[in-house]
Amino acid sequence: MAASHSTPGLNVAERQTPLWQNENVRAFALFMLSLGIFLLFWEIGAKSGWFVKGVPTATETIKEFWWWVTNPFYRNGPNDLGIGWNLLISLRRVAIGYIAASLVAVPLGILIGISPVAFKAFNPYVQLLKPISPLAWLPLGLYLLRDSEKTGIFIIFISSIWPTLINTTFGVANVNQEYLDVSKTLGASRLRTILKVIIPAALPNIVSGLRISMGIAWLVIVAAEMLLGTGLGYFIWNEWNNLSIPNILVAIFIIGLTGLLLDSLFAALEKFVAFGRNS
């Protein structure tokens, strides 16, 4: 029987799966292929008149996009700001309203989750206010606050509070009873149990709620700003009044890219929390 032998000098790295068989590489290649097909269809369609009159070509839109991202902070008066300024304005409003909502939703969610009485008392408010469109609050906010900046922050607050509140409540209410029993056996106080057992166990649900709330906040602010002035929403509305479709598309791409970045940050935090819990 012939003795088997391995090829000399063949290390582990050389025996690994070929690059083209790597799942991430294939996914990236498919993404680039689909993007190329989409841009080609867009370019040919716009030049051939397949779409309605006035639709810009892909190359025209990409040129506009490049101009805006290379000149983001120009200022020609209060109503003619670079897209970088408008992005910062929108992000500032989102940050203030979102942080305020989180500071209310997380503690309140913990309270409702650990107390059946609090759940029964506050749940009707949640079920009543949760389905209301955030934009329905816009006229009331303008009337009460008499300030577009404060109204934008108020809209973000009222729209982003519910996912965090609901997820926090769910996470706290569904903490493994064995954890609570062990804590009680060891003589831990109620506050220590909340800080050392309940919150760490519910953290993945809390972060998941924060992630959903951020997505909703970023979604809502653009619509609200069309009526408030300044910000990316106002930029889009202003470019529509100027019938500048390429600039509208540029703003849409920037909104999408910013949303993708924000969601990726929370996805990384979610993975970190889940890893810390399982390790």
Automatic annotation (TrEMBL):
- List, alphabetically, the InterPro entries matched: MetI-like, MetI-like_sf, NtrB
According to the UniProt entry, its GO molecular function terms are: nitrate transmembrane transporter activity
GO BP terms = alkanesulfonate transmembrane transport; monoatomic ion transport
Print the keywords alphabetically.
Cell inner membrane, Cell membrane, Ion transport, Membrane, Transmembrane, Transmembrane helix, Transport
The ABC transmembrane type-1 domain covers which part of the protein?
Answer: 87-266
Q: Where are the membrane-spanning stretches?
A: 25-44, 95-119, 152-173, 217-236, 248-269
**Domain of life where this protein originates:** Bacteria
GO CC annotations, alphabetized: plasma membrane
Q: Where in the cell is it found?
A: Cell inner membrane; Cell membrane
Q: How does it sit in the membrane?
A: Multi-pass membrane protein
Which NCBIfam families has this protein been placed in? ntrB
Similarity section: Belongs to the binding-protein-dependent transport system permease family.
Concerning PANTHER family, the annotation shows: ALKANE SULFONATE ABC TRANSPORTER-RELATED, MEMBRANE SUBUNIT (PTHR30151), NITRATE IMPORT PERMEASE PROTEIN NRTB (PTHR30151:SF7)
Q: What is this protein called?
A: Nitrate ABC transporter, permease protein
Q: Which species is the source of this protein?
A: Phormidium tenue NIES-30
User: What is the taxonomic lineage of the source species?
Assistant: Bacteria, Bacillati, Cyanobacteriota, Cyanophyceae, Oscillatoriophycideae
